[in-house]
């Protein structure tokens, strides 16, 4: 994934991974890895009682929770 990010950055500057003798990017492996991660995430079972746990946070915890969600999305 880092190599992919480097490739995108280099392309924005008109360069390529080959210009810097970096390894070839194997897109299939990256895609397969991302698909596997997504499938794992979708398979997580969340109990209904956990969906409302944020309602019980104190004000400091709620502030941190809100900051994390704001930056995650």
From TrEMBL:
<protein>
    <recommendedName>
        <fullName>Carrier domain-containing protein</fullName>
    </recommendedName>
</protein>
């Amino acid at each position: 994934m880092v190599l992919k990010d480097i490739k995108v950055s280099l392309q924005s500057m008109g360069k390529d991974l080959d210009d810097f003798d970096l390894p070839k990017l194997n897109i299939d492996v990256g895609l397969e890895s991302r698909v596997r991660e997504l499938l794992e995430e979708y398979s997580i079972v969340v109990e209904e009682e956990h969906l409302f746990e944020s309602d019980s946070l104190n004000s400091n915890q709620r502030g941190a929770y809100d900051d994390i969600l704001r930056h995650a999305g």
